[in-house]
Design goal:
36% strand, Aminopeptidase, 6 strands, 112 residues, 3 helices
Length: 112
């Protein structure tokens, strides 16, 4: 299962996106993007929080993501850093965990 949430400004312009896919009993949050003019206004935090709320109604136990520089933001949302060998193999196989994001930080959050 895959899903996407978008945020729009008052003028209807797209300001942010978060997408996720379910892999076994885990979720892979990906495509978390916010328009540069909207950064610092809580758009990313709101989108991720809404995605996590949507996942609570599923069998998902953990949500994983990879970030090349926003780990502090996600840590404030309850994620913690995890070594890649602790990320499920099927999530590691996805494009986001391969090149060019190889240097990104893997994070996880337990749902429940």
């Amino acid at each position: 299962m895959r899903s996407t949430l978008v945020a729009q400004g008052p003028d209807g312009a797209l300001t942010g996106v978060v997408a996720w896919e379910l892999v076994d009993n885990a979720a892979h949050l990906r495509g978390i993007t916010v328009d540069p003019s909207e950064r610092g206004h809580g758009t990313a935090s709101h989108l991720v929080a809404r995605a996590l709320m949507a996942l609570r109604g599923t069998d998902v136990e953990y949500a994983y993501l990879l970030t090349p520089g926003a780990e502090t933001l996600f840590e404030r949302l309850g994620f913690w850093r995890v070594h890649r060998d602790r990320v499920p193999a099927r999530i590691l196989e996805t494009a986001a965990y391969g090149e060019p994001s190889k240097g990104g930080v893997a994070l996880v959050r337990r749902l429940g």
